[in-house]
Hints:
The chain is an alpha/beta fold. It is built from six helices and nine strands, in the order E-H-E-H-E-H-E-H-E-H-E-E-E-H-E.
Amino acid sequence: MKLLVIGAAGDVGQGLVYAAVERGWSVAAAGRDADRLKRIIAAHPAGQVRPVIGSVADPAAAAALLDAGRTELGGLDAVIVSVNAPNDVRPLSDWTPDGLLGMFAGNVITHFNALTAALDVLNPQGVFLGIGGGTADFVRAGSVHISMGQAALRMMYRGMAKEQPSRIVRELQIVAMVDGESTRHKADDTWLKAEEIGRHACAIIERPAEFSGPIVILRRQDPIGTPPAKI
Length: 231
């Protein structure tokens, strides 16, 4: 399996790379920070993870990144995008229109750029998986804007899957706090480990028909690597 992970230096991204390497896959780890990518690559067997420097901030950059990932691995079987912009915690009334547009650009449009570029690069049987958050259906104090972005992201993936029925498009929506590199010091047993998220994502890529989606929910209590029960 040849996998491109976009956002590989983030908490979830590192878990995705870890799980893919665990399966023996060839991985291209993509991100904007060369030094952070070097550190991640050094943690895995030589040659199994390769760096791709770039971003999905605009369509041209996303197309260049996807092409670089395909070239680095000699083809792509799957693409995962796990990127988001930092979000300030503050009341919705404190946001300006320009601020909200910037938030949507970093958290929704980046995924759109990656998805549209990937559909031009992946073969028809290739899998595209976006990683989303779990507050699309509820809000926390100071985080209304985050819920707005996550709801928009979910509808984007749902809409693209409907418009492209022959392609394999999924969103893994994580309804839990994430225990990753930056949060491990405060995480407890109710948090999902980044490596668990990675294993679940890899299971979706291996067996997409079992995870019918297009939106796949992962909660802390759900068994890793197992499709959700039908309701």
